[in-house]
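Section 5: illustrative case.
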């Protein structure tokens, strides 16, 4: 929980004082270095000085990291209420502090047994000593959307099924006006010919679903922007089975759909008045005797035939059908998809940046600006006219794998591009950025990061 107060209150169990190098506090009789935490005990109350170093060199990412470190420090283990005194009134810095406190202290421990002796207070009440502003409440709201996304991604694949995601979406739109919902289950997907989507789910006992939320928050004559998420509730790779060390985290393959849930929550909470389509392409890429086969040729909703070069390149198939269905039936003017699409994107960019692809420079620039502003980072990678040569098939219109070795994130993006028609479109490949393994990086702990939620919420709010 987080709140704001213009004046410091005295009923707090602890106080965190953020200090840059030149800001001396008379209680502190020494210089405090960047990253240093200096605790005092004032009676029963903890006072934590946190060093931020030279203000000119202090990035907002640093600030988020330091807040996380302070709030999760040993000294505050048993503290329920803590006040944070920022080093500045700067709005962007205060927002970073809020994010450090909310995004930074998120931990996934649902399945860890609670040690009786370990009385760590996790959900501390954090009060930031700053004049309250609408913008700060907005940041808090966005962080709650990020949390929903992370919870959905982190939990077991057999819990977060297509049914579960449907319930989540229904819960989010309940009581909202100007909303309509279309759900295509297996039967409807068959009747309408979304055969690529169906093929991917063929080996699974669970229901494939295409969920479309239409929200007319803007003016009647304004075009719709579609946000489309890849929702592979588990990706075994199918008959091209993923090996050990690659399969273990594949419950995260619905991170795109998870992000769509978080963004949807944010749109309502922030009262964003736009015409939007929220689309979740949900399937499970399971292995078994019913699973679709390498070498198969499948004709999807757009009427294009696709040769299956590899059953593990399944995300693009589900998205291809989702795109063609949405483009034909809802005619959005803009479409942004978000997907854990390729391991190649991780090779290209690592874990800190999502790959951004677009057929529209203006849209790409706007999204990059949002990525910069929110620290939900993205880096543009290319698609270009000649690249489509690499996804040609001798026996079908397209192939779901590439004929060349490198650039797998780009050829996957080009495959998607084949299904957007004239729509201004951007694709975020979050295969690397969606999840942190090990002990964390920056201000994220182990697990899902909520990649794309802050970026796209900011986009919908500002563009
Ligand atoms: N879901 C994976 C991509 C992925 C990799 C997500 C690592 C998160 C972390 C995707 O469906 C996949 O398996 N892609 C293949 C495509 C290949 C077979 C052409 C890949 O990237 O290896
Ligand atoms: Zn795959
Ligand atoms: Zn996948």
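Designed sequence:
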């Amino acid at each position: 929980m987080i709140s704001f107060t213009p004046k410091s209150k005295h009923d707090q169990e602890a106080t965190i004082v953020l200090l840059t190098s030149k800001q001396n506090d008379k209680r502190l009789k020494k210089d405090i270095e960047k990253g240093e935490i200096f605790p005092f005990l004032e009676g029963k109350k903890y006072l934590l000085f946190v060093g931020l170093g030279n203000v000119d060199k202090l990035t907002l990412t640093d600030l988020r990291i330091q807040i996380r470190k302070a709030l999760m420090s040993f000294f505050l283990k048993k503290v329920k209420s803590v006040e944070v005194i920022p080093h500045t009134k700067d709005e962007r810095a205060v927002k970073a502090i809020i994010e450090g406190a909310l995004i930074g202290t998120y931990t996934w421990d649902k399945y860890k047994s609670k040690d009786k002796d370990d009385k760590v207070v996790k959900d501390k009440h954090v009060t930031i000593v700053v004049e309250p502003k609408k913008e700060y409440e907005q940041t808090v709201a966005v962080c709650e959307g990020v949390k929903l996304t992370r919870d959905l991604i982190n939990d077991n694949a057999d819990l977060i099924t297509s049914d579960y995601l449907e319930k989540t979406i229904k819960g989010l739109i309940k009581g909202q006006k100007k909303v309509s919902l279309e759900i295509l289950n297996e039967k409807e997907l068959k009747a309408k010919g979304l055969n690529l989507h169906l093929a991917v789910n063929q080996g699974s006992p669970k229901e494939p679903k295409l969920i479309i939320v239409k929200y007319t928050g803007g003016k009647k004559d304004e075009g719709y922007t579609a946000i489309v998420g890849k929702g592979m509730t588990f990706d075994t790779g199918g008959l091209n089975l993923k090996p050990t060390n690659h399969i273990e985290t594949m419950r995260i393959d619905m991170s795109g759909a998870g992000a769509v849930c978080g963004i949807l929550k944010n749109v309502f909470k922030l009262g964003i008045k736009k015409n939007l389509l929220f689309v979740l392409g949900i399937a499970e890429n399971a292995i078994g005797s019913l699973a679709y086969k390498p070498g198969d040729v499948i004709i999807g909703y757009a009427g294009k035939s696709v040769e299956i070069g590899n059953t593990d390149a399944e995300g693009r198939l589900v998205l291809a059908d989702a795109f063609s269905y949405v483009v034909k039936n809802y005619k959005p003017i803009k479409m942004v998809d978000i997907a854990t699409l390729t391991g190649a994107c991780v090779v290209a960019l690592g874990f800190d940046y999502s790959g951004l692809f677009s057929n529209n420079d203006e849209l790409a620039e706007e999204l990059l600006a949002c990525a910069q502003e929110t620290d939900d980072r993205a880096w543009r990678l290319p698609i270009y006219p000649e690249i489509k040569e690499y996804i040609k098939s001798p026996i079908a219109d397209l192939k779901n794998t590439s004929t060349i070795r490198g650039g797998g994130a780009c050829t996957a993006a080009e495959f998607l591009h084949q299904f957007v028609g004239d729509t201004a479109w951007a694709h975020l490949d979050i295969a690397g950025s969606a999840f942190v393994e090990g002990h964390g990086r920056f201000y994220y702990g182990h697990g899902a990061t909520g990649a794309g939620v802050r970026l796209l919420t900011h986009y919908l709010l500002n563009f």
